[in-house]
Amino acid sequence: MYGETQQDSSPSDSPPTLAAGATGAAGCLSDAPSDETDDAEPLFVAPVYDADAENWVIHAYADEAYYEAREDHQIHLGKFEGVVDDREIEEHDAAFTEHHDGVYRATVDFGLTPADSEDPRVVHVSNMTVEGADSDETGPEVGGFLRPNVVDRDPPEVPDVELAFEYDEAAREVTITHESGETVQGASMEIWIGDDRTDEQFSGEITPDDRVTVTVTDGNPGDLLTIVWHSPEIDEEIPLGSFEIPE
Fold first, then answer.
1. Which one of 19, 84, 145, 207 is most buried, by most CB atoms within 10 A?
2. Low complexity bias: where (predicted)?
3. pLDDT tier for residue 5 given thresholds of 50, 70 and 90
């Protein structure tokens, strides 16, 4: 009976961000319109990042109608897709207390999504338990989902290096020199011409004045010779420098 989630795939900065989506018969989250009718029972879920603790705290807000109409208030954290027995769900009683006139609030620690997680945890605020939500005998569920838009992580620290390129037109070769900056492991760098990895590559520790000569006979004028760096923290290639093959 769990509703659909919405997920934003835009890149993250530090601190990490969360995106919200709304589900349920009367539930609403930060990007969903509120029902202003007399019998509306709004529910609002908001993430708050505690920079000192480096931790997300989830705040669930409910109006008086939602709070008083139900005996069960639950906050579920975990993975809701797949077979029920394989789910990893924490179930918390949502201890709503009056935050100010007519508005009730419950909080729960969310933590951070593990790095490189392809199946991040979601937050689900509901009027029933997980077992009740999976039962065919229960009535309509009212609640909402919140899930991280991407994994929580800081940007990788890219090596600070300055590369120089010298082209030998007769030999159709480019010499790449590490002119200044940090020492870089050759195994973390790759040299490409367009979509093709070159035969000649850096190796060992690359320090200032180290160089490698690359044959570009298979390249065409205008093709880019690019040096990319592989971050050990994330599966991503980051360009350190490039050279356009002249005519």
1. 145
2. 8-27
3. very low
The pTM for the full model equals 0.43
**DSSP letters spanning 44-92:** EEEEEEETTTTEEEEEEEEEHHHHHH-S--EEEEEE-SS-GGG-EEEEE
At 130 the three-state DSSP class reads helix
CA max distance for the chain: 83
Backbone angles phi, psi at 217, to 5 degrees: -60, -30
Percentage above 90 pLDDT, the chain: 26
Residue written as token pair 């769990």: 2
Question: Which H or E run contains 148?
Answer: strand 143-148
Same fold, 18-148 and 161-244: yes
Q: What does the domain layout of the chain look like in residue ranges?
A: 18-148, 161-244
pLDDT tens-digit profile of 164-181? 999 999 999 999 999 999
Q: How far apart are the C-alpha atoms of 141 and 133, rounded to whole Å?
A: 7
Question: What's the pLDDT score for residue 173?
Answer: 95
Alpha helices per DSSP H over the chain: 64-69, 130-133
What is the CATH code for 161-244? 2.60.40
